[in-house]
Amino acid sequence: MKKKILGLLMTATMVLGLLTGCGGGTSDTSGGTDKKETGDKGNDTTVTSTIEVGIILPTKDEPRWLQDQKQFETVLDSAGFTNQVLFSQASSETERKNVETLIEKGMKVLIMCPQDAAEASEAVEKAKEAGVTVISYDRLITDTEAVDYYVTFDSFAVGEAQGQYIVDNAPKGSDIPLYLYAGAASDNNAFLFFEGAWSILQPKIADGTFKIVNSKEAESMKDKADLSKDEIGKIIAEITTDWDFNVAKKKAEEHLSVAGAEYKGDVVVLAPNDGTSRAISDAFSADSAITNYVITGQDSEQASVQYIIDGKQSMTVFKDTRTLAADSVDMAVSILEGKTPNTDATYDNEKKEVPAKQASIVVVTKDNVKSALVDSGYYEASLFTGLE
Ligand code: BGC
Which domains does the chain have, with CATH numbers? Predict the structure, then answer.
C-alpha cells in the first residue's frame, strides 16, 4: 500500500509543472455547496480558486463515505492537486448542483459516487459537455455514455464473501431460517452484492439447508442459479433497506414479529452492509426467541469493528478506502498527463462497456480483526475496547 502511494506521489509530482493554479486542497466538508476556500493563494481573496479534481460522495451520514473523504483529501493534498469534496446528502438534485459548482470552478476530472445510478446521468453529461473526464467511483453511473472510467471494489466478490461466510458458519442441519436483506434499488452495487451472495446461497436453499423467511420472490426463484437483473430487482423490492439504518431495523422487527417459532432459534442473516447489519443485529438481539444469529456486513466501519469484537456482528468485508482513493487519483493523474489510465475490467452500464479498475476485498472476523484493521494502520487500537 505504501509503495502505491509513494508511486502515486512521484507521478503526481511529475505533473505538477503541467498544471496551472496548483495549490493545496480545497475541501468542503459541509455536505452542500457551502464552500470553504483555502489553497496557497495567500491573502488574495480576489483570486477564484480553481479545482482540478472534484469529488462527489453520496452522504456524510454514513461513516463509509467519511472514510473515503479522508483518504481523498490526504492523497490529493499531498500530490499537490487542488480538489474539493462535496456530498449529495441523498439528493440527486444536490448532486447535480455540486457538479455544476465544480464545473464553474474549472474541474478537469470528476470522481463521483452516484446517489442514484441512473439519475446521475444528466449531471455527468453536463460535466462531459464541459470537457471534464468522468470517473464513476465505487458505484457505477448507468444509462449514459458520459462515464469514462469506473474505479471500484469487486462487488460481486463482496456478496460471494457474505454468502460463503453464512454457509461456512451456519448451524448444522437443514431448514435453517435465512433472513435476507439488500441495499437500495437505486444503487447498482446492491444488485451485484445480492447476485454474488445468491450464487453461493442458492444451492443451499435449493437443497433444503436454508429456508427463506422473508422473501416470497426469492422463495419462488430458489431453483434458479442465475437471476436476471429484473428478477433480482423483484427480490430487492421486498427486502431493501434503502441503505438506511432505520428502515433496516424496522423491517427486521416486522419480520421477526410475524415469524413463527419454526423461523426462530439459531438463524442466519444476510445483511448488506455494516450500518444495516448493526441495526438488524439490534432487532435480532432484542428477540428472546432468537437463540443465535450469524450476520454479515461490509465496510469495516469503526462501530461494526466494535460489534465484531463484542460478538454482535459476525463478519465484515474490508474494502480499503485507501486503495480505492489512491487508484482513482492514479487514474486522475494519468488523465491529466494525457495518458490512458490502467484498467483491468469492464462494466456494462446499459449504454457502454465502461473500462474499470477493480480492487480486491478482505473478509474480517473476530479472528483477524486486529491484523487486518489495526496492524495495517487503518484504525488506532485505542478506538476499541476488548481488542486482543
Ligand atoms: C457501497 C457500500 C456502502 C453502501 C451504502 C454501496 O454502494 O459499495 O460500501 O455501504 O453503498 O452507502
Answer: 2-147+320-360 (3.40.50.2300), 155-318 (3.40.50.2300)
Mean predicted confidence (pLDDT) in 313-339: 95
Q: pLDDT class for 80, splitting at 50, 70, 90?
A: confident
Residue type, 56: I
Ligand 1 atom having least distance to the Cα of 65: 12
Residue 81 has a pLDDT of 87
Question: How confident is the model over 29-73, as pLDDT tens digits?
Answer: 334 333 333 333 333 333 356 899 999 999 999 999 999 999 999
The pTM assigned to this predicted structure is 0.89
What is the 46 CA–ligand 1 centroid distance (Å)? 39
**Cβ(161)–Cβ(317) below 8 Å:** yes
pLDDT at 347: 97
Q: Which residues of 3-29 are buried (b: 16+ CB within 10 A; e: fewer)?
A: eebeebbebbeebeeebeebbbbbbbe
Residues in the chain: 388
Tell me which residue of 164, 156, 163, 222 sits closest to 189, measured CA to CA: 156
Please report which helix (H) or strand (E) contains residue 97, including its range: helix 92-104
Ligand 1 centroid, distance to 273 Cα (angstroms) = 7
Q: Which atom of ligand 1 is nearest to the CA of 62?
A: 12
Atom of ligand 1 nearest to the CA of 59: 12
Q: Among residues of the chain, what percentage have pLDDT more than 70?
A: 87
Exposed, middle or buried by CB within 10 Å (0-12, 13-18, 19+), for 250?
A: middle
Higher pLDDT, 5 or 105: 105
36 with 49: CB under 8 angstroms? no
List residues near ligand 1 (CB under 6 A).
62, 64, 138-139, 183, 187, 189, 243, 273, 298-299, 319
CA angle 145, 149, 154 (to 5 degrees): 115
